[in-house]
Amino acid sequence: MLASKKTAVMETAAQEPSAKISQVEQRSNASVVPQSIPLIPRYLDCGFYLFHIIILMALLLSAINLRDVPTAGDIKSIHKDGNKDGFESAETAAIACRNFLSFWPFLWACWIFLYSFLFIKSICDDNVTMFAICSVAENVFNNCTAVIFYALYVELSEITVGVDRPSKAWIFAVVVVFVFAAVEVATSIIAGGPGATEATTAVSDIFSVMSGIAVAVCTGLFVLRMGTRTIDVPTGVVILLIVYIGIQPLFSIIANPQGPVQYMMGSSAVVVALYSKVFLLGLVSWLVGTHRLAYYMLRERQVKEEESAQRKLFVAFLLRINSRGKEDEPTLGGPVCEKDTPPAGAIQ
Question: Membrane-spanning regions, if any (predicted)?
Answer without folding.
Answer: 48-66, 100-120, 169-191, 206-224, 236-255, 267-289
